[in-house]
Each structure stands twice: as structure tokens, then as C-alpha cells.
Automatic annotation (TrEMBL), chain A:
One of its GO terms (molecular function) is oxidoreductase activity. The keyword DNA-binding does not apply. This is (2Fe-2S)-binding protein. Residues 3-79 form the 2Fe-2S ferredoxin-type domain.
From TrEMBL, chain B:
Signal peptide: none annotated. This is Xanthine dehydrogenase family protein molybdopterin-binding subunit. It comes from Azospirillum griseum. Pfam families: Ald_Xan_dh_C, MoCoBD_1, MoCoBD_2. InterPro entries: Ald_Oxase/Xan_DH_a/b, Ald_Oxase/Xan_DH_a/b_sf, Ald_Oxase/xanthine_DH-like, AldOxase/xan_DH_MoCoBD1, AldOxase/xan_DH_MoCoBD2, AldOxase/xan_DH_Mopterin-bd_sf. GO terms for molecular function: iron ion binding; oxidoreductase activity. It comes from the Bacteria. Keywords: Molybdenum, Oxidoreductase.
From TrEMBL, chain C:
Keywords: FAD, Flavoprotein, Oxidoreductase. Pfam families: FAD_binding_5. GO terms for molecular function: FAD binding; oxidoreductase activity. This is Xanthine dehydrogenase family protein subunit M. Residues 1-169 form the FAD-binding PCMH-type domain. Gene3D superfamilies: 3.30.465.10, CO dehydrogenase flavoprotein, C-terminal domain (3.30.390.50), Uridine Diphospho-n-acetylenolpyruvylglucosamine Reductase, domain 2 (3.30.43.10). It comes from Azospirillum griseum. SMART domains: CO_deh_flav_C. PANTHER family: XANTHINE DEHYDROGENASE SUBUNIT C-RELATED.
């Protein structure tokens, strides 16, 4: 029995009629064609599907679209500035080669942004611990850790803070 | 001035912006008008007869378009998935090659074997209906362990493979080995298991089939490392579609690690079904489905012995291996435990005589094929574990016994006793760099410090060598490959000087779009952003053998160099014509074509423009256009090598092993992009550590069920499982036989790391009398090894 | 997932009414339920989402402890200054559940009502002398967990809040499954005056206390007091990752570590 789901996704209000069992990730990928959010597992382990719901990172494969009804959702497509300037975390991932095949990357970046927002100056241990919910098979995490450290520094810079306001 | 984006520069990847902004194009991202969704009905039993399939309830379910079975495929004369490599047994007989159909015909042979497919308007509807397909199974006894599969009473997986034996193969000089053992002062032995792994690229496999009745063309979009090979195998052997009517696209692919080399049944099913139902058909695996049906890796059980003289010099190596191939032969499966394994058993050592026997068996498990390293990690692990044991037997330091037996750089090129000829390498140099890098001399103090904290510390080496750039067609053919393994490239200069490169290599994380562009930027002095690398589409690229075996740069990159050579030759002719000079007087440097001794010169852009807008070319000797194609078939494999050193700390109370340091010193020949190369090493190391400490694919031999069927039970390495690494490379030993001098870096980390890690674990436990532990060294296994130690040792 | 209907009541009374529907299931954060549904291991007719019920939210100081609403997410408990100041071991336990994203969704009520044998919270409910308040009654923490995935809750009964008693000292030490990150063994140790509680999760079908450990720690609240003590492996879980006797061993090790961490 379809229900209407309305939420703000990357700043735009969207409304779709979906089956109740529709996952948030399916809503984003299939109904909104926002295919940057990926599905890498079916047991809530890999984190390729991480998005922000009302500012907190969640696994969109383990969230129903109806649970996000009325919420504000940010996906990887909504992270860069309107003019296309990469978010400092995105830029840091590129600078430090924190991605290879790119499949885990959207979830990894979204988790990293959430991590830094909660802990602006994370240590290597904090980063490794904080990325527990994201699996990458390519990079061995070495460069992801470097990228998140650099991304955190960049996010803390006055200009980035001003842009985030 | 060197090009800032040329060879040797850590150019930031050109492909990254699309991945970082969610604009990658992976197979599951594609949507087509009128597209349907396909879900498989898979066997819950490891071995059973399929006595009937009742699809009536499924067909009546909402949204269902079709239910198709093996019988439907048989009626349409769909063929068996072909195997690309043939091995002959000791007695000269060819390997057993049973049929491997995309949808089972009358019998299923592993949990996950596909029985039927349901196609519906939505994926949920297809899933709902798949449950309604009633399959009448008659269960048969099953076997999943290779050691049981070879016993007399084992269930038979295939009627045509008695004793479950696919082949019984050998390599080397048995008589020479036997003679050497008779003379040996010391013999080191080991029995070990190389644990089965699930590759687990983060993007699950997916395939989208389309058929256009207006022109009879099929398009398959698939998660593949080598679309041309899929087109060849599926078109010629399975579906009978000629190449000009079959386009295979491998768009952005989210990691492969070998598991996406092979032609899988699902690719044939969606392509065939698309025509049958007249609509596009998409299938995307759930992770659970990937666990059951992706080709797995490793799964060897081996016994090995090393004969030594009084001083610990290796005299001979004897190896006997049992390899589990799973229920069916995957595309490259037979080659992995033979020519990619036994040929590497010399390692970095001048062992004069080597003899290896390999029995490969069928079991009721998912097919086993190449997984990152593919045969070479198994060889490296066996040798490097055995060398550590040999050091103990001979009473030598583990670094010293290696040094004592290295093939010296002066002996290059070196013919091993197991078919390969190493072209270059300075193994002692790798060790010389590594020992101070890891402060080997300071290890004893670190161990004491750990002990003071109640921890056990160990250090382990792995001095590995591998054969990469999988290609030489003549060598591969002699070893049983049913096709040559060259690579193709086309370089197309456009009129305004931008360049499109078409390569048969495929990038699924390796960064070809950057590295290959660097080669072009360096050669012709064009801005790197004016170079586009196109890969993964059979309708655009002349041909390709794809990416596996660390071959892209060594073979694909060399093909690109050959094509650039041709472009340059032609550009020279055009320059000569434009500058009214003799061709022999044109000098070329950094993309400028100059008449020797003059200031008359042209850039490649000027030449490209003239090539497309000529007015007065001497047409009998100069055609318009600047677009050249080349195929490159190397003379030999390349031989990346190095020294990996791992240091671990073990908590004896819980058995938890922590990798506290890992250093890699590698010889990859010349390096084009250090940033990318180091990234490949990092990722490889973690897959090696994963095998050593965390990952294990376990089937229950009684029930035949996969016990590690999700990330809940199959332990993937996470960020907090590993440290940061120290990675060094040197470029003193370029490959001698390819134009770039490159060797390949994609698999080295995985090949070296598992042995280094386990050698460190065993070293840490040596105080307890432990001389070997099978991977993975899980906390319980380590804890048990400590509990089982002799009381006298444990008390120390 | 099979199809289901969905409701999001805004009062506990409405939630209780909705939960009466045949085969209805309550939805907390969904971090266990949704994976179960995705694997088609359950087929509820209706999901009753409790996220709109204001009465089930919030963390409050109460006499002798903390009252935590059932629909309080793990991350809220982990980051709550009140929890950190009052029962830091509880915040630390919550910070170790699952991963960051799971903690951002998963709820206390969902965790204890599900009673997964490898969940963390049950050990806190038992060790911290909790009482569980439902829509209709209070249940002592000691009586709440009755078996593997089984609780004292009646069909349709909804956990409203959990009241934890503030201990003098407490800590939780977990040995996690390296793959799933659930507890293979988790031991919560809490000291109340002369009384010590040791609650073990992960090791058996349901959380249990270890009287021998408690007695030893009541005599001497120090890790070495547990030397030579162990639980029987007889009724412990065994799986691919840990045999029963390894789990039994880990119970002692983790108990000692918890005592050390409690200080």
C-alpha cells in the first residue's frame, strides 16, 4: 500500500509515492536517481550507503524511506558547493589518494565529514575507530586516514567554517 | 624541463572528481526505459538432483514478466561457460572439463548454483516471486573439503571426473630433487593450508542485458575487468552471437581483485533473457549472493620439504599441493594452482632442483579462481614459511638464510628450475634497504619492552617474487592458455591537439585514466587534461585482454607506447612535409618536431591540425589523419620483487594479534605515478594481512553450507585492524624487456604480506614451541596455541 | 523485505493500540529489525515506528540514578553529559555498540526488547540494577531477560524507559567479534557499596550474572581477586569465532579488565 514520503534532499524538497518497505537508499537511487549512494552489503556492515539525515550519518540501506519522512537528507551529490567546489573532505580524499575504485568513497566521505563534525581534531586512532562502519577493499585505509586528517584540518580553517555556516 | 604531469609525477587522479561527487557510473546505476529486474532462484543444497520446477505461482505473482530455467536455455541451444586454460595431467591426459551451464540442467552442485530466474517489473516483485518458484530437489551427498574429496568414499561431484580429480599435474625434475634430498644435511618440512578467501570487491557483481530488434544488436553492461574477453567467450561459446552484434561495456567497476575477470553465467542469462522477453534485464547481486557465487580464491593444502646442506644452502624443494577448484571450472581456474603457482616456487632463491605435484579437485563449493595474486601468494606463503622453518633447522638468522640463498643480481637473467626466467632483480638490495628501515637490530629491545607490558612481539620477513604482466602469448600458449595474452592500444590525436587513447586494459580502481595519460603527456608534451583514456567498451576499443595479473602498465602501457611510436613516426613525416625538410632531419623532443640545426619546429598540435586539414599531402606516401593502433605482446613476464617486514604484538590472555608495524620495500622497475603505486601497495598489504589474521571462507563439510556468508561472519579488514605502513621502492632494476621498464605493482602487497605477517606471528609464539600456525591466526587459534604449549616453554 | 504497512504514532497509548494488530512489529532504530526483514527472516504485517512517541525520549536524572527513554539512540547516551557524569560506564558501553551509523539510529529500548544474546545493553540493565518501565508496569532488570531473544515483555507491551542505578564504580569490557563487531563476551562490573554485580553478555543465550565473581570482588574489588575463577563452559555459546571454553576463558579476562577499568 503505497505511502507518500516527503523530505528535503540536498536542499530540495522532494515527494514520492513509494511502498512502505522502500529503503532510504532505494528511494535515493531509484526514485530520485541519486546513484552516488551505493549498496555494498545487506547486513549494515560496509557503509557504502552512508548519508546524513538531519546532520547525522546513517546507513541508508538500514533505514526506511518513511523513517526519513520530513527529514533533511544530504547525499554525496549534495556535499560540494553549488559552484562545484569540492567540500574540503572531498578535496582531501583526492589530494591524498584516499580512493581507488570509488565505490566505498561516497559513504566513506560522508562518514568522515560526520566524524570530524563531532571531533574536529581526530587522532589517527580516532579516525580508524570512527570509520569502523565503512569497509574499503582497495586502499588499505592508509591514505583514507591521511585524507581524513587533512580534511579535518581543512574543515577547521576559518574559510571552510564560514562556508559551512 | 620535465613535464609536471609526466612520468614519475604523483599526479592527482583525473578520475577522482566524478567518484568524489557521486557521479561514477557503475553497472547498477544504469536505468533503461522499460527495464526489468531479474532475481535468481538458487540451490539451497550443496548437491541435489533437480527433479522439477513449478513456476506457476511465481508467474501469477504481481509484476512478474517471466520465469526462465535451464531447460529454456537448453532449448535455445545456450552453451556451457568455457574454460580458458587447459592443463594436462602427468600421464598426458587432458583435465576433466565438465559442463558449466548458466542455469543448472538437472543437477546442482553447490549452494548458490542457479536453477531459475524470475524477471519482474521491480526488484522487490522479482524477489517476492522467486520465493514462489517451487523446485523439487532430491538431495545428494556432498563434499566441500578437498582433503575429503580425494578419498575413496567421497561423493562424486561430476560423473565424468572420477575421484573428483580434475587433473594430477607436476612440474620440475623429480629425480634431481630425490637425489638432492639423499645428500641433504638438513631437511625442513611444513604442512600448511592456504585458506580459502572471498574476494569481496565492494561493488557486488551486476549485469544489464539489452537487445535491439531493429538491428539485432545485443548490449551487455557488466562489472567486468575485461569486456572483450567476455564478448569473445559469451558470444562465441555460450550464446552464439557474432562480435559485430554484441557490445560489452564494463563502465566504472568497483574493484575486482580477480573476481571480475571471469565470464559468469549471470552475464549470459541477462543477455539471452533481454531478447527473449524483448526488454532490458538488470541483475544486481546482493552481498549474500556474491558470497555464494563470486569465484573464491586460494584453498590449497600443501606439504613441502626443503633439503639443505650443512650451511643452510638450499639444495632442493619438494612440494605437493591439493587445490580445491570448486564445483565447476571458472574461466582461468586450472591455471592458478599450476602455472601461476608452481612456476613461482623458486622464489628469490637459487634452489637448484624443484619438483611440484598438484592435484586439483572438484568439490560442492563455489568455483575457485584467481584472487589478487592468484597462485603467487600461495607460492610465496609456502616458500617463505618454509624458509623460516629452514632457518630454525639450520640454526641461522631468518634474514641471513635468505641472504645466503638469494639469486644474486649478477646471475640475471636467471633461469629457474620451474620454467621461468627472471630478467632482473637485486634481492639483497631489497633486504639491505629493509633491515635498517625496520630497525631490525632494535627488535630485541622492542620485544623486551612488549614483554614488560605482558605482550608477545614477533617480526617476520617475506622476500617475495612474482610473475606479472601476464601475457607472453607464446609462453602462455605453451602452458595451456587457449588464447594469446597481448594488449591493444589506439592513440587518436584530434585536429585541435587533444588526444583520445583507447586501451584494452580496464581500470577498476587502478587509476589508468591518470597513469596512461601521464605517458601521453610526457611523450608529446600535451597538457594532461587534454588526454582522455577510454576503456571498457568493445564498441570503442579495437580489442583488449583486460586487467589482471598486474598487467595493465607492463602490457597495456607498452601497447600504448608502441602506438605512440607509430604516431610519432607519422607525425615526423607530416612535420617533414610541412617544414619542407627530409624526414631524417627531423628531431623529436617533448612533442616538438625540429629540423636539425635550425629553429624551424612544430608542436604536435600543429601537426595534428595539418593531419586532418591537409591541402597538399603527397598522398601516395602520406595519408591524412593521426590515429594509430598497436598490439603489444611481450617477450617475458615481469618479475616484481621485494622484501616485506611485519611486526606484531600478541596479547597472550586473549590471543589477539595486532600488527604494530609493516614495511614494504619493493622493486617494481620504473614507477610512473608514485602516489598510485604506493596506494596499490597499501591495499595489497591489507588483503595479505586480512588473509593472515582475519579472513576465512568456511564451508561446513557436513551440511555443505557456507558458514561465512556475510560480513557478519567473514571478517573484512577495517580501518582499526591495521596500522599505517612504511612503503619504499627503488628503480634500480627496470624490467629489461618492455619499453617502459615497468614490472607491475597491483598484487605485490598481497603476495608478500600474508607470509610476512604469519612469520611474525609464529616468531612471537616461538617461545611456546610453536613452529607453524595455519591462517587466519584468529584470537582463539593463537590463544589455543599458547595453551597447548609445553608447560616448560610456557613457564619461561 | 516482504510488504508491510507502516504507522508512526505520536503517543504511547496509540503505539500500544497499533501494536495489537496481528503480526505487528515495533520499530525502534531498526538496526537489527531491518537487516532481519531484508533477509526475509521475518514477515510482519505492520511496522509501528516509535520515533514519534515523545514520552519514550530523553535522559533524566532521577533519585539514585538515570532514567533513559526507550527511544533514546545509542549516540545520545554515549554523548550525554549527564550520563557521562553519572554513569560513565554506561556512556562508554553505548559508544562501543556497533558503529557510528548504527549508534545514530539504534535505540536502548530496541536493543533490550530484542534481547540479542550478543547485544551490549543487557549487561548494563542487569549490572546497573535497572528497572524497566513499560506501558503497563515495571520489571526488574534481573527479571527482564528470560532467554535467547526472549524477555518478560508480553505481546504488544512496549518499553517506555529504563532506570539505571548509579554505582560507586563500574566498567564494561567487551571482546568483540572481529567480523560483526558484536560482543563475543562483554562483562559489565558494577560496585554498589559492599555489593558487586557482574553481568555477562555474548557468552550464553542470555545475559547472566556470575555469583562467584561477585563474591570474590565483594571481598576484594581488584582484578587479582578473580585469579583462578572461571565460569563453566557447559552452557556457553559456540560458533565459528569462539568455542565455549574460549568464551569461558574470556569471561574471566574481560571481567578482570572491567574491574581494572572501574578503578
Amino acid at each position: 500500500m503505497p505511502c507518500t514520503v516527503t523530505m528535503t534532499v540536498n536542499g530540495k524538497t522532494v515527494s514520492r509515492e513509494v511502498e512502505e518497505r522502500t529503503l532510504l537508499v532505494t528511494f535515493l537511487r531509484d526514485h530520485l536517481s541519486l546513484t552516488g549512494t551505493h549498496v555494498g552489503c545487506d547486513t549494515s556492515q560496509c557503509g557504502a550507503c552512508v548519508v546524513h539525515v538531519d546532520g547525522r550519518s546513517v546507513k541508508s540501506c538500514t533505514t526506511l524511506a518513511v523513517q526519513a519522512n520530513g527529514a533533511s537528507v544530504t547525499t554525496i551529490e549534495g556535499l560540494a558547493a553549488a559552484d562545484g567546489t569540492l567540500h574540503p573532505m572531498q578535496a582531501a580524499f583526492r589530494e591524498h589518494h584516499g580512493l581507488q575504485c570509488g565505490f566505498c568513497t561516497p559513504g566513506m566521505v560522508m562518514s568522515a565529514v560526520d566524524l570530524v563534525r563531532n571531533n574536529p581534531t581526530p587522532t589517527e586512532h580516532d579516525i580508524r575507530d570512527g570509520l569502523e562502519g565503512n569497509i574499503c577493499r582497495c586502499t588499505g585505509y592508509h591514505n583514507i586516514v591521511k585524507a581524513v586528517q587533512a580534511g579535518a584540518e581543512a574543515m577547521n580553517s576559518p574559510s571552510a567554517k564560514a562556508a559551512a555556516e | 624541463m620535465a613535464n609536471p604531469n609526466g612520468v614519475g609525477a604523483s599526479v592527482r587522479r583525473l578520475e577522482d572528481p566524478r567518484f568524489l561527487t557521486g557521479r561514477g557510473n557503475y553497472t547498477d546505476d544504469f536505468k533503461r526505459p522499460n527495464m526489468t529486474h531479474l532475481v535468481h532462484v538458487r540451490s539451497p543444497y550443496p548437491h541435489a538432483l533437480v527433479k522439477g520446477i513449478d513456476a506457476s505461482a511465481a508467474l501469477a505473482a504481481p509484476g512478474v514478466v517471466a520465469v526462465l530455467t535451464g531447460a529454456d536455455m537448453e532449448a535455445d541451444k545456450v552453451g556451457s561457460l568455457p574454460c580458458g586454460w587447459q592443463i594436462h595431467s602427468k600421464d598426458g591426459s587432458p583435465m576433466k572439463e565438465p559442463g558449466h551451464f548458466p542455469l543448472a540442467r538437472g543437477r546442482v552442485r553447490y549452494v548458490g548454483d542457479a536453477v531459475a530466474v524470475v524477471i519482474a517489473e521491480t526488484k522487490d516483485q522479482a524477489r517476492d516471486a522467486a520465493e514462489l518458484v517451487v523446485v523439487d530437489y532430491e538431495e545428494l551427498p556432498a563434499v566441500t573439503a578437498s582433503t575429503r574429496a580425494v578419498t575413496a568414499e567421497a561423493p562424486q561431484v561430476h560423473d565424468e571426473a572420477p575421484g573428483n580429480l580434475c587433473y594430477d599435474w607436476h612440474l620440475g625434475d623429480k629425480a634431481a630433487v630425490d637425489a638432492a634430498f639423499a645428500q641433504a644435511a638438513h631437511v625442513a618440512t611444513i604442512d600448511l593450508v592456504n585458506n580459502r578467501l572471498v574476494p569481496n570487491a565492494m561493488e557486488p557483481r551486476a549485469a544489464l542485458g539489452e537487445y535491439d530488434p531493429s538491428n539485432g544488436e545485443y548490449t551487455l553492461t557488466t562489472t567486468s575487468q575485461n569486456p572483450h574477453v567476455i564478448r569473445l567467450l559469451m558470444g562465441a561459446f555460450v550464446l552464439g552471437i557474432p562480435e559485430h552484434k554484441l557490445r560489452v561495456v564494463a563502465p566504472d567497476v568497483g574493484g575486482g581483485f580477480g573476481s571480475k575477470i571471469f565470464h559468469y553465467g549471470e552475464e549470459a542469462v541477462v543477455t539471452w533473457a533481454a531478447k527473449k522477453i524483448g526488454r532490458p534485464v538488470k541483475w544486481t547481486a546482493d552481498r549474500s549472493e556474491s558470497f555464494l557465487t563470486d569465484a573464491h580464491g586460494r584453498d590449497h593444502v600443501s606439504h613441502a620439504e626443503m633439503a639443505m646442506d650443512q650451511d643452510g644452502h638450499f639444495l632442493a624443494l619438494r612440494v605437493s599441493t591439493l587445490a580445491n577448484l570448486g564445483a565447476y571450472l571458472s574461466t582461468f581456474a586450472p591455471s592458478i594452482p599450476t602455472y601461476l603457482y608452481a612456476t613461482l616456487l623458486a622464489g628469490q632463491y637459487k634452489t637448484p632442483a624443484i619438483y611440484a605435484e598438484v592435484k586439483a579437485v572438484f568439490t560442492n563449493t563455489a568455483p575457485v579462481d584467481a584472487y589478487r595474486g592468484a597462485g603467487r601468494p600461495e607460492a610465496c606463503y609456502l616458500i617463505e614459511r618454509l624458509v623460516d622453518i629452514a632457518a630454525g633447522v639450520a640454526g641461522l638468522d631468518r634474514a641471513e638464510i635468505r641472504r645466503r640463498n638469494f639469486v644474486p643480481a649478477s646471475a640475471m637473467p636467471y633461469q629457474t628450475p620451474v620454467a621461468l626466467q627472471y630478467d632482473s632483480g637485486d634481492f639483497a638490495k631489497n633486504l639491505d634497504i629493509a633491515l635498517p628501515l625496520v630497525d631490525y637490530d632494535g627488535f630485541a629491545a622492542r620485544k623486551a619492552a612488549s614483554k614488560a607490558k605482558g605482550k608477545l612481539r614477533g617480526i617476520g620477513f617475506s622476500t617475495y617474487i612474482e610473475a606479472c604482466g601476464i601475457a607472453p602469448s607464446n609462453v602462455a600458449g605453451a602452458l595451456g592458455a587457449r588464447a594469446g595474452l597481448y594488449e591493444c592500444a589506439e592513440v587518436r590525436f584530434h585536429p585541435t591537439g587533444s588526444v583520445t587513447v583507447f586501451t584494452g586494459s580496464h581500470s577498476h580502481g587502478q587509476g589508468h585514466e591518470t597513469t596512461f595519460a601521464q605517458l601521453v603527456a610526457e611523450r608529446f608534451g600535451v597538457p594532461i587534461e587534454n588526454v582522455e583514456i577510454v576503456h571498457g567498451d568493445t564498441s570503442k576499443i579495437p580489442f583488449g585482454m583486460g586487467t589482471y595479473g598486474s598487467r595493465s602498465l607492463a602490457v597495456g602501457g607498452s601497447a600504448l607506447v608502441k602506438a605512440m611510436d607509430k604516431v610519432e613516426r607519422k607525425a615526423k613525416k607530416i612535420a617533414a612535409h610541412m617544414l619542407e625538410a627530409a624526414e631524417t632531419d627531423i628531431e623529436v623532443k617533448d612533442g616538438r618536431f625540429t629540423v636539425a640545426g635550425t629553429d624551424k619546429s612544430l608542436g604536435i598540435g600543429d601537426i595534428a591540425l595539418q593531419a586532418y586539414v591537409p591541402h597538399n599531402f603527397p598522398l601516395d606516401e602520406l595519408e591524412p589523419g593521426l590515429d594509430e593502433q598497436a598490439f603489444y605482446d611481450p617477450k617475458n613476464f615481469t618479475y616484481p620483487n621485494g622484501c616485506h617486514v611485519c611486526e606484531v604484538e600478541i596479547d597472550p590472555e586473549t590471543g589477539v594479534t595486532q600488527v604494530v608495524a609493516f614495511s614494504a620495500v619493493d622493486d617494481f622497475g620504473n614507477v610512473i605515478n608514485p602516489l598510485i603505486v604506493e596506494g596499490q601497495v597499501h591495499g595489497g598489504i591489507v588483503q595479505g594481512i586480512g588473509q593472515a589474521l582475519l579472513e576465512n571462507c568456511v564451508y561446513d563439510d557436513e551440511s555443505g553450507q557456507l558458514l561465512t556468508g556475510s560480513f557478519m561472519d567473514y571478517c573484512m579488514p577495517r580501518a582499526d585492524d591495521v596500522p599505517s605502513f612504511t612503503v619504499r621502492y627503488h628503480e634500480d632494476q627496470p624490467c629489461t624487456h618492455n619499453p617502459l621498464g615497468v614490472k607491475g605493482c597491483g598484487e605485490a602487497g598481497t603476495i608478500g604480506a600474508s607470509a610476512a605477517t604469519m612469520n611474525a606471528v609464529v616468531d612471537a609464539l616461538s617461545a611456546f614451541g610453536v613452529t607453524h600456525l595455519d591462517m587466519p591466526a584468529t584470537p582463539e587459534k593463537v590463544w589455543r596455541a599458547i595453551q597447548n604449549a609445553t608447560p616448560a616453554l610456557a613457564a619461561e | 523485505m516482504y510488504a508491510f504497512t507502516y504507522q508512526r504514532p505520536s503517543t504511547l497509548a496509540d503505539a500500544v493500540a497499533a501494536a495489537q494488530a496481528e503480526d505487528a512489529k515495533l520499530l525502534g532504530g531498526g538496526q537489527t529489525l531491518l537487516p532481519t526483514l531484508k533477509q526475509r527472516l521475518a514477515q510482519p504485517s505492520a511496522l509501528v515506528d516509535l520515533s514519534g512517541v515523545a514520552e519514550m525520549k530523553g535522559i533524566n536524572a532521577v533519585d539514585g540514578g538515570l532514567e533513559v527513554g526507550a527511544f533514546t539512540r545509542h549516540s545520545e547516551v554515549a554523548h550525554s553529559d549527564l550520563v557521562k557524569a553519572t554513569i560513565p560506564a554506561l556512556a562508554s558501553l553505548a559508544e562501543g555498540i556497533g558503529d557510528r551509523q548504527v549508534r545514530n539510529m539504534g535505540t536502548l529500548g530496541g536493543s533490550i526488547a530484542n534481547a540479542d544474546p550478543s547485544a551490549d545493553y543487557p549487561s548494563a540493565v542487569v549490572a546497573l540494577k535497572a528497572t524497566v518501565t513499560t506501558d503497563r508496569r515495571t520489571i526488574a532488570g534481573d527479571d527482564f531477560f528470560t532467554g535467547m531473544f526472549e524477555t518478560a515483555l508480553e505481546p504488544g507491551e512496549i518499553v517506555k524507559s529504563v532506570r539505571f542505578s548509579t554505582p560507586d564504580k563500574a566498567a564494561y569490557a567487551k571482546f568483540r567479534n572481529p567480523a560483526s563487531r558484536y560482543a563475543i563476551v562483554g562483562v559489565f562490573v558494577a560496585k554498589y557499596g559492599a555489593e558487586v554485580r557482574v553481568a555477562v553478555t555474548g557468552a550464553a543465550g542470555s545475559v547472566f550474572r556470575v555469583p562467584a565473581f561477585e563474591a570474590a570482588l565483594e571481598a576484594n574489588f581488584a582484578a587479582e581477586a578473580l585469579n583462578g575463577l572461571s565460569v563453566s563452559a557447559d552452557d556457553l555459546n559456540a560458533d565459528l569465532h569462539a568455542s565455549a571454553d574460549y568464551r569461558a576463558h574470556l569471561v574471566t579476562v574481560m571481567a578482570k579488565r572491567a574491574v581494572e577499568a572501574a578503578g
